[in-house]
């Protein structure tokens, strides 16, 4: 009888395995509730953003907020979902090593998602500013500085994410920062020329003596169009289709001419000499008339001709004219030169060759050899 009674009583008392199973079931239920709550929150947030976001952003004059909302909505949903998984795992009584491994992996994933979220906001903002600059509006950043600012900010984002991850795994951040500081000082001393080029690159982008697409003339006389302004060097495409790569510090410390500033108009000059028997006023009027006959020459400012100087064998004239784009200056000069040559021949205006008069003097008492 006692054995039977003990068996009946034991049937109503759960065993240790049953207690463990019940405990795990409760923990799993709590984890599912936590994850389900975050998942529902993610769906609700996305639904609210999709439904009311465009209506709220419609009150602003710019489309920047619309673009940011559209880019960050998927990342917000993913972030809330991973947060739900992270906190759900923290409710489970896992083994310490397994818990640290899973928890650490989820934390790193959350940090990566936050970095992506910040990058998308930054990227859309810089694109918006670049488009405003391209459309001619007064943007805060120029088109040349936007990629540079994006790269530098990405370095800070990655650095902040790395510090957050290291702190989560209980690494000494102070010693790491100290080591990086000493290493940076050593690298800076060894690469001072490169750093000088980089600092000069920032100076060029802030001071903006030229922009991408501008045609500049270097102190050496080379002319080309600016293709790219990088951290270390600037690339210039010359008129004969060659690429000049010039260190930024050299460009900062030299004199150059920006033919595209303040606008793309450029002034051309043609020098021509006529014989001393020519009527200077008639020649000047003819030069202006010939310039106006060329379609690419601007009517305003009007072409001008001047009697510049008395040459050894000619009266030196100069014709000045303007064209809309510096890229067509050479072609326009060729057209005017051709017209000058043909019209001078028709009207009998001589372009003389260089003439020198040599006088030979014989001293008295010298005899001319027979």
UniProtKB/TrEMBL annotation:
* Gene Ontology CC entries for this record: plasma membrane
Please state every residue range assigned to the domain named Mechanosensitive ion channel MscS.
194-258
Mechanosensitive ion channel MscS C-terminal domain ranges (all copies) = 270-351
Q: Name one Pfam family in it.
A: MS_channel_3rd
The portions of this protein that span the membrane are: 28-52, 72-89, 101-122, 148-166, 173-191
Q: Which residues form the Mechanosensitive ion channel transmembrane helices 2/3 domain?
A: 152-192
Which key words tag this protein in UniProt?
Cell membrane, Membrane, Transmembrane, Transmembrane helix
Q: Which InterPro entries match?
A: LSM_dom_sf, MS_channel_1st, MS_channel_C, MscS_archaea/bacteria_type, MscS_beta-dom_sf, MscS_channel_2nd, MscS_channel_C_sf, MscS_channel_TM-2
Q: What are the protein's GO molecular function terms?
A: mechanosensitive monoatomic ion channel activity
| Subcellular location(s) of the protein | Cell membrane
Q: How does it sit in the membrane?
A: Multi-pass membrane protein
Query: Which family is annotated?
Result: Belongs to the MscS (TC 1.A.23) family.
* Protein name according to UniProt: Mechanosensitive ion channel
Species annotation: Trichlorobacter thiogenes
């Amino acid at each position: 009888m006692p054995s039977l009674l003990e068996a009946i009583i034991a049937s109503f008392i759960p065993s240790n395995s049953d207690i463990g199973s019940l405990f795990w079931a409760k923990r799993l239920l709590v984890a599912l509730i936590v994850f389900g709550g975050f998942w529902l929150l993610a769906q609700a947030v996305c639904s609210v953003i999709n439904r009311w976001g465009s209506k709220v952003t419609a009150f602003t004059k710019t489309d920047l907020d619309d673009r940011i909302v559209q880019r960050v909505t998927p990342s917000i949903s993913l972030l809330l979902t991973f947060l739900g998984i992270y906190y759900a795992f923290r409710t489970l009584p896992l083994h310490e090593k397994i818990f640290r491994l899973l928890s650490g992996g989820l934390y790193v994933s959350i940090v990566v998602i936050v970095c992506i979220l910040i990058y998308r906001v930054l990227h859309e903002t810089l694109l918006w500013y670049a488009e405003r600059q391209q459309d001619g509006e007064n943007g805060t950043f120029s088109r040349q500085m936007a990629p540079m600012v994006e790269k530098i900010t990405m370095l800070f984002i990655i650095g902040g994410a790395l510090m957050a991850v290291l702190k989560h795994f209980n690494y000494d951040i102070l010693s790491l920062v100290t080591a990086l500081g000493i290493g940076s000082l050593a690298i800076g001393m060894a690469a001072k020329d490169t750093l000088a080029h980089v600092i000069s690159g920032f100076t060029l982008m802030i001071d903006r003596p030229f922009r991408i697409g501008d045609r500049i003339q270097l102190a050496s006389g080379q002319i080309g169009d600016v293709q790219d302004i990088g951290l270390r060097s600037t690339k210039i495409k010359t008129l004969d289709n060659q690429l000049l790569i010039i260190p930024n510090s050299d460009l900062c410390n030299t004199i150059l001419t920006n033919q595209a500033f303040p606008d793309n108009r450029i002034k051309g000059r043609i020098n021509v000499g006529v014989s001393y028997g020519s009527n200077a006023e008639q020649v000047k009027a003819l030069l202006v008339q010939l310039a106006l006959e060329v379609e690419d020459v601007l009517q305003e400012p009007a072409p001008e001709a001047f009697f510049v100087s008395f040459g050894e064998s000619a009266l030196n004239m100069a014709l000045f004219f303007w064209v809309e784009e510096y890229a067509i200056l050479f072609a326009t000069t060729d057209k005017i030169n051709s017209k000058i040559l043909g019209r001078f021949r028709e009207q009998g205006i001589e372009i003389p060759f260089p003439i020198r008069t040599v006088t030979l003097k014989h001293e008295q008492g010298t005899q001319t050899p027979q």
